[in-house]
Amino acid sequence: MEQSGTSSLLQGAVQELATGVASALRGGGHRRMTGDALVAGTEEGIAVAAVRVLGADLLLPHLLFRTPPAPEDLAAFREAVGSYPPRAGVAPTVQWSHWAMRRTLRRLTVSPGGPDADARDAEPDAVWLDDATWQTLTHQLSVLAPLAVPGEDCAVARAARRRPVDVARGFVRAVRRRDWRQAAGAGRWLSLLDGVPDTLGLEAGLDFVELMGGGDPRVVLQVRAARLMRVEALVGRP
After folding, report:
1. Other C-beta atoms within 10 Å of 73: how many?
2. How far, in Å, are 66, 141, 156, 208 from residue 132 at the CA level?
3. Where along the chain do its domains lie?
4. Over the stretch 148-176, which tens digit does the pLDDT of each residue have?
5. d(Cα 148, Cα 186) in Å, to the nearest integer?
6. Residue 223: half-sphere exposure toward Cβ, Cα within 13 Å
7. Could you tell me if 149 and 60 are in contact, meaning their C-beta atoms sit under 8 angstroms apart?
8. How many angstroms separate the CA atoms of 198 and 109, rounded?
9. pTM here?
10. Distance (Å, rounded) from C-alpha 43 to C-alpha 128?
11. Is 81 left (phi over 0), alpha (psi -120 to 50) or beta?
12. CA 14 to CA 53: how far, in whole Å?
């Protein structure tokens, strides 16, 4: 019972964080994500664990809008990175999620042009994506949606760029299966990829995913991120 209660608290804390991020994406990035209600309403360990579950997306509004994160958010993010390093033998998605958090922290705290501005952590292995079926690829990419950010050039992003049609197929499959989180994550990747079939109708697809899965803040977060990045990508193209 105690374990079930802890799991429920963690899920609630993650949902609250996702709600804050989604709101900040709509409002231009000016919002504290780890609000007082979250910290006061959960044990400190649960709050930090929730930050780790949401991962790099906690600070996504600040990457997209180039706004400084609140000191409380940055402190919670740092603590989550330090408290939950990936253990030996964990799944590649866990390793990549942690890598994404470290990379986000560096992007937001290292001065441009400074001595560590171009420093890169060694990337985890991504060879498992090379021969993945399109179904598996889409599932894995949706789990790693926090890596779908403008300008990211890592092995996972390169794997997605090589297979836009497969990701589009996965998006359609997720919608048909009513797997709104997977559809939203795949849609976020598609918003950044060249070569996506026009027949997919990504804009309408994202609208439908938000309509049907909008009760889940993590779906809303991904859809809003996808729209923002799609607009930026379209503006940047000749």
Report:
1. 24
2. 35, 11, 12, 27
3. 1-112, 125-238
4. 999 889 999 999 999 999 999 999 999 99
5. 9
6. 24
7. yes
8. 38
9. 0.89
10. 37
11. alpha
12. 7
